[in-house]
Amino acid sequence: MLDNYFPILVFVLLGIGFAVAPVISGLILAPHRPDGRKLSPYECGFEAFDGARTKFDVRYYLISILFILFDLEVAFLVPWATIFKEIAQTDAVKWFGFVEMLVFVAILLVGYVYAWAKGALDWE
Length: 124
Hints:
Radius of gyration: 26 Å
Number of strands: 0
Distance between the termini: 67 Å
CATH topology: Methane Monooxygenase Hydroxylase, Chain G, domain 1
Oligomer: single chain
Number of helices: 4
Number of domains: 1
CATH architecture: Up-down Bundle
CATH class: Mainly Alpha
Strand content: under 5%
Order of helices and strands: HHHH
Helix content: 55-70%
Structural class: mainly alpha
């Protein structure tokens, strides 16, 4: 019975080895030359002018959430487009699949128009 679990154990150990080996080799082989600039919390080229707890504009988050939302919706269109030939070959499914995707795109368009009308896409 334990012979069946041996390959799983080997794969787990190999996975752990592949994860730990680069970290250990980086610690051993990489040069370690600490510097005041390297150890500072900001390495962007200039001193921090504000604290880390400053508030960001909400519009930035709104635009990013809308981008993710519409990007994921477009990702649902790709599988449908790849199998559209198979959908179109069957008469019973042809119109159902097409109308279903039209409804999906219509809902997406209504959401886009709503976000545009509310001014969520305006950046001032």
